[in-house]
Amino acid sequence: MPATHRLAAVRPARARRTGILALPALFALLAVPLALAGCRKAAPQPPPSAGGPFRVALLTPGPISDAGWNAGAYDGLQAIRKELGAEVSHVQVKTPSEFEEQFRAYASKGYSLCFGHGFEFQDAAARVARDYAGTVFITTSGSRTSRNQAPIVFELEQATYLCGLVAGRMSKSAKAGMVGGVEIPSIKSTFLAFEAGLKAGNPGATATAVFTGSFEDVAGAKAAALALVDQGADFLFQNADAAALGVFQAATERGIYAFGANRDQNALSPSVLASAVIDLPRAFVETARLVKEGRFTGQPIRYGLKSKVISFVWNPALLGRVPAPVVDEVKLTEAKIEKGELAVPRGNF
Amino acid sequence: MRPLQAAAVAAGTLAAAALLVALAGASPLAAARALLDGALASPAALGETFARSTALVLTALGAVVAFRSGVLNIGLEGQLLAGAAAAAAVGPAVGNLPFIGRLAVLLAAALAGAAWVLPAAWLAERRKVPAVLSTILLNLVAAAGVTWLVRGPLRDPAGDYPQSRPLADALVLPPLVPGTRATAAVVVAFALAALAAVVLGRTALGLKLRAAGLSPRAARAAGLDDVGLRTGAFLASGALAGLAGGLEVLAITARLYDPFSAGIGFTGIAAALLGGMAPAGSAVAALLFAALGAGSSALQRDAGVPSALASVVPALAVLGLLLARGRREAP
């Protein structure tokens, strides 16, 4: 047995060296197909046949049972089925490597519209949109556009401006606090609008922002909110997702008002005076209607107060404590924003 | 008698899967068709199966190389993440020189995968800490590391989402067949499987590795450096998993995301076990797992099977397969 014979003769040091030499050999092998791959361009696929049933697909990054972001999108998809008579399909993707796979599968089956529910779907949508001109790809938030791709942009700022206006009019200390989760442009943009509204209500008022670095840390958000109250703030705005509960707890403990954001949070705490709300299902239905009626232009689809996708909702239980002139002014300002007479500032992102 | 038993197992598995699908309110027949359609029925579906197989083949090879040398490397998932992170860190920096850039990305990925093994290898050889334990823990560290990287140092300043900066388009591997997602990465994976089969089965190095794996004491008595062999195999195993992560970035995602992998490293170990801990068998098993993965995503898409259940059906199929194999090999 020659192999065993050689084996016995080998010294340990040499064995180790052979092992180390195997790696470069692997890489020499890698070079071949990589060079072959070169820079070939993908040929565009023919567009799927028009005229069939209106088919709409939705990709969500998480489970549709989350009672929040993903559930809202799924409700929107079901509303599209009911209101527009569309055939619908939904998949939950686990990792980004599946984004393109699912977009491609839907497009190749002739779906008219694919929603990717989040900023993170943009790249994959752009890659597939190039190959399938007959399918429209919509991402909820984002900035990439093409002839058949665009993001939905939620102008929540228009409602947070109104929150700021209320705080400006009603604050006794002329100080408001803003608690954010992670410091990202979309959150900062809502703060920018809140502050603008605050100053519109009371030019001398100031707002202080704190970011806790987490959308889940309820205790951290509460501590940040209490610190803001200690500095004199008697109105709290927040955009901290689940951590908002901490802000509401702080507001309740100190007997001041807070605002809800993204969802109608008026029922969550007796301290929530009003909420800046996004109606996700409505946004999905309106977008699908746009595509179905051939009015989609490849431009970002903006939804603000006018579309009713964004709304400012008073807490009915607390409305009696709001001075009537403030209620009237909010209504008036809302109308101005809807008519385009008042432009609410928003961050560039 | 044996084929009969295998058939009974297959029928039982199918019946269980059909029952589950029916309970979820979907049609078992439509589910079966979707599973096949999504995995095999078109060039795009086949391409998807191959695209998914790349990382599975490489992590399965990593498992084979380590396990056969006597190292229970359960940390392939973490090593894959380390490789992907390194690829995403190096990729945007090398600009758009396709050949050099890709090589640099893959080299960084493999080195990072191997580097992620180092603490476990040191602990195993110097402190007698079981590799099973240390590598599992390093998986958790790697996952947390990815979470931190995409929100911290590697974060793409453009936009609002925690993801790394993208690789240049010229760097990302193009599909071998337009309209599919199968790239040269697939060729790399299967070529490495062939190479591993040759090295492990037909060379002196392979024999030494297997000898060290079968009995470290006997290998040492025969004059082999069992520590060196084991450590070398451990590092190579990590490098293969790291390469899997690098190729995933280079061929498919072009960025690092969080979460990046849904347990590819663990599925790779399952493929290696199903493939009898041999490179060729493991590559075939990895391809099977990839087909089931692609098929199960079509289950959701085309048959309306809920997400959670869609991954149960292929798992049942694999259980059935293992059961049939176990019966066949029982004495």
Can you walk me through this structure?
The complex is a heterodimer of chains A (349) and B (331). In chain A, 45% of the residues lie in helices and 19% in strands. With 349 residues, chain A is of the alpha/beta class. In chain A, strands 2-1-3-4-5-11 form a six-stranded parallel beta sheet, sandwiched between helices. Chain A has a six-stranded mixed beta sheet with strand order 7-6-8-9-10-12, with helices on both faces. The radius of gyration of chain A is 27 Å and the shape is elongated. Mean pLDDT of chain A is 86; it is low at 1-49. Chain B is mainly α and 331 residues long. Chain B has one domain: ABC transporter involved in vitamin B12 uptake, BtuC. Chain B has 14 helices and no strands. In chain B, helix 4 (76-90) packs across helix 10 and helix 4 crosses helix 11. The longest helix of chain B has 30 residues, at 98-127. The two termini of chain B are 14 Å apart. At the A-B interface, helix 1, helix 2, strand 2 and helix 4 of A face helix 3, helix 5, helix 7, helix 8 and helix 10 of B.
Features:
heterodimer, A: 349 residues, alpha/beta, Rossmann fold, six-stranded parallel β-sheet, six-stranded mixed β-sheet, B: 331 residues, ABC transporter involved in vitamin B12 uptake, BtuC, 75% helix
Write the layout of secondary structure elements.
The complex is a heterodimer of chains A (349) and B (331).
Chain A: H1 2-9, H2 12-37, E1 55-60, H3 69-84, E2 87-92, H4 97-108, E3 113-116, H5 122-131, E4 136-140, E5 149-154, H6 157-170, E6 175-180, H7 185-201, E7 206-211, H8 218-230, E8 235-239, H9 244-254, E9 257-262, E10 272-278, H10 280-292, E11 301-303, E12 310-314, H11 324-339
Parallel strand pairs in A: 1-2, 1-3, 3-4, 4-5, 5-11, 6-7, 6-8, 8-9, 9-10
Antiparallel strand pairs in A: 10-12
Helix pairs in contact in A: 3-10, 4-5, 6-7, 6-11, 8-9
Chain B: H1 2-23, H2 28-39, H3 43-68, H4 76-90, H5 98-127, H6 131-151, H7 184-202, H8 204-214, H9 216-221, H10 226-253, H11 264-274, H12 279-303, H13 307-310, H14 312-329
Helix pairs in contact in B: 1-14, 2-12, 3-7, 3-10, 3-11, 3-12, 4-5, 4-6, 4-10, 4-11, 5-6, 5-10, 7-8, 8-10, 11-12
